[in-house]
Here is the input.
Amino acid sequence: MVVSNRASLLASVVSGLGVTVLPVLARPSVGSGLAFVPLAEPTVERIVGVLTRKEETLLPSVAAMHALALQSLAQFTRRKGAVLV
Here is the structure.
């Protein structure tokens, strides 16, 4: 079976139709009826970046949004058990 979106994928697993592999940041919240078992090997990493124009100062509103995004990502990764480096 091929499923194209996360909601259908998780519903299929909850229904007992199979198992799946998901990144830690995509795992469902507690109480979903699913168990999340981290893989021991291999270790998988994802690099997420922010692109800006070279040698250009960010507008204050953009700088504030950038700081908020980094703060939110740090909080989200801590809740999900991921590591932000």
